[in-house]
C-alpha cells in the first residue's frame, strides 16, 4: 500500500502532483504542508478521542461491565493505530481508522436515538452528554482528514519539516482544548453516589427512615395520585390523575393524610409536600429521604396535617423536568372542623412559564362565582417556572379593598386593608387574600411579572400576556396594575411576639448565593453556588435538635432566589439590614432579591436531613442546593447516576 507521506516519491506520483508548466518545487512544499498538517491533526484528534474513551471506561465498567471492556478496547486500539499511522502513514491505515471512527459515531447515534439491545436499560435511548458530543466531533473530523489523505496523498521533501511543525500549532491547540474540555466534563459529571448525610463511623447515629408518623386515632383521609402521561388541549403532559394542576387535596387540621403514589410514567418520580411540616421520611426527596419510585411502582406517604394553611405538592425527582411537565397540585388544610369564616374559598394556582401564565388550567380569564356582600378567600399559589432571572409573579386584586391574611400558609397579625397592590410571589410561595364582594360590579385578580415592573425588572420591560380571574357579575374598575405599589412585608400588619426571631441564636451561618461559568455535571454551565460550592459539594449546615438557627443570606447575583427550607418555618428578621416592624413573617420560601441580604431564623425542632435550596429550577439544577443535617442522623439514600435519584 502506498505511503501517504513518503520522503521518496515515485515518478508516477511526482507527475500526478506537478501541473504542466507549473513550479514543482513550490507545489511540493505546499503539498507537503497540507498533507503533514492533515496527518498530524488527524492523529491528534484520534489520540484525544482515545484518551476520552479511557477516562470514561471506569464509569461504564460500573454501569455494565461489557460496555467498560468496549470503551477500554476502543481507547487502546485508537492509541495503537494513531501511533502506527503517524510512524507509517499508509492509505490502508488511514482508511481503517476513518471507517472505525465513523462506525463509532454511528453506534453512538443509535444508542442516543433508538437505544441498544444490550446494556443496563436495553432499548432505552441514552442521555446525550457534552463529553460524548465532543468525542464524536473529534472522531468525525479525524475521519474526514484520514479519508482526504487516502484520496489525496502527498510526497514531500524532508527539509521542510519545520514548516509542518509551525503549521500544526493551531490543530494541536484545538485538539488539546477539545480533549481537555471533554475530560473535564467527564470528571465533573454528577457523582455516581453522593450522600447528603452519611453515617458517622464510630458514632451512634439513627437512620432517617425511622422518622415516620407514629400511630394515632386521627380521622384518615386517603388519596391516590396516579402519575401518567396524558394529552391536555392537544399537548402531551405528565399529570397526576390526568389533570394539570393535579387534584386539590383538601383536609382538616388534625387529619391523618395517606397518599398513595402510583407511577405509570416512563421515569421514576416522588411527591414532596411543599411547606407542610411532615416527618423527615415522608418528605419525598429522591436520594435524601427515599429512593425515587420506579416506573410501575407505588409508594404511600403518611403524615398528620398539624397546621392549617395553603400548601402544595410536586415531584422532587428531576424536578426541573417533572414540575414543568405538570406534576404538581394544591394541598389545603382547613381548620379542625372544616369551616372557614369566608363564604367563598378558592384556590388559585398560577402555572406555566413567564409571559405564558395559566390559572387553574385556564390560559386567559377564569370566572368564579361570588355574590354581592360575600366574603371571599383567594389562596394564591405560584408554580410558574421562571427563566434564569428567577423573576417572581406579581398578582394584583382590583375592584375591592382586601387583606393579605397569610403568607406561605402562615397567618399575619392584624392585616391592613389594601387597595390595588402587587404581591411578590417567587415560585413556591403562597398568599391568602380576603375581601368582601362589592354591592355591584366584579372583582378581578390580574397576574403581572417582573418584566412588567420596571422598578424590579432587570431583563427588559416587554409586556407579557396577563392571565386573570374574574369574580362576580360585571366588570372590575380599570386600573394600571403594572404601576401598583408593592406589598411591603416589613411594615405590613401589627407587631407581635416572635419567639424564634427574638431568641438568641445557637447556630449562625452565612448563606452566600453566587454564580459563575464553568463545567459541572458533564457540561458547561452557568453554575449556581452556595458558599462557593455547587451541589452535591456544598457543605451542609449542621444543627442539633432544640437549637435556634440564624441564617444570613447574601445574594451576590442579579437574579431572584426563593430559598426554600423543607420541614421548618423561617422567621424573617431583616431585609437589607432593615428589621421587620409589622406583623411577624413566617415563611418556608423566602424571596431574596438581586444583590439583597435577608436574615431569617428557625427552630431546629424536626430532626432529619432536610433540603435547603433555591426553588428556581434552573438555579437548583445548576447547583444551588444544600441540606440542614441534624447531629446523630444519617440517610441511607444516595443521589447520583448509580441510584438514579436526581432530586433537582
List keywords for this structure.
6-stranded mixed beta sheet, 648 residues, 7-stranded mixed beta sheet, 4 domains, Immunoglobulin-like, alpha+beta, elongated
Summarize the topology:
Blueprint lengths: L10 H7 L6 H40 L1 H23 L3 H23 L16 H22 L9 H7 L1 H19 L18 E2 L12 E13 L2 E6 L8 E4 L3 E8 L8 E3 L23 E7 L4 E6 L4 H7 L2 E7 L9 E10 L2 E4 L5 E4 L6 E8 L13 E3 L3 E6 L2 E2 L18 E7 L6 E4 L21 E4 L27 H4 L4 E14 L2 E8 L10 E3 L4 E8 L5 E5 L4 E6 L2 E2 L6 E2 L1 E4 L4 E7 L5 E6 L2 H5 L3 E6 L2 E2 L14
Parallel strand pairs: 1-32, 2-5, 4-9, 10-13, 12-19, 20-23, 22-31
Antiparallel strand pairs: 2-3, 5-7, 6-8, 8-9, 10-11, 13-17, 14-18, 15-16, 15-17, 18-19, 20-21, 23-29, 24-28, 24-30, 25-26, 25-27, 25-29, 30-31
Summarize the structure.
The chain is α+β, with helices and mostly antiparallel strands. The protein has 4 domains: 11-187, no CATH class; 215-339, Cupredoxins -  blue copper proteins (Immunoglobulin-like, Sandwich); 340-487, Sandwich (Immunoglobulin-like); 497-631, Immunoglobulin-like, CATH 2.60.40.
Structural write-up:
- This protein has 648 residues and is an alpha+beta fold.
- It has 4 domains: 177 residues, no CATH class; 125 residues, Sandwich (Immunoglobulin-like), CATH 2.60.40.420; 148 residues, Sandwich (Immunoglobulin-like); 135 residues, Cupredoxins -  blue copper proteins (Immunoglobulin-like, Sandwich), CATH 2.60.40.
- Helices cover 24% and strands 28% of the residues.
- It has 10 helices and 32 strands.
- The strands form 7 sheets. Strands 20, 21, 23, 25, 26, 27 and 29 form a 7-stranded mixed sheet that branches. A 6-stranded mixed sheet has the order 11-10-13-17-15-16, with no helix packed on it.
- A hairpin with a 2-residue loop joins β2 and β3.
- α2 runs antiparallel to α5.
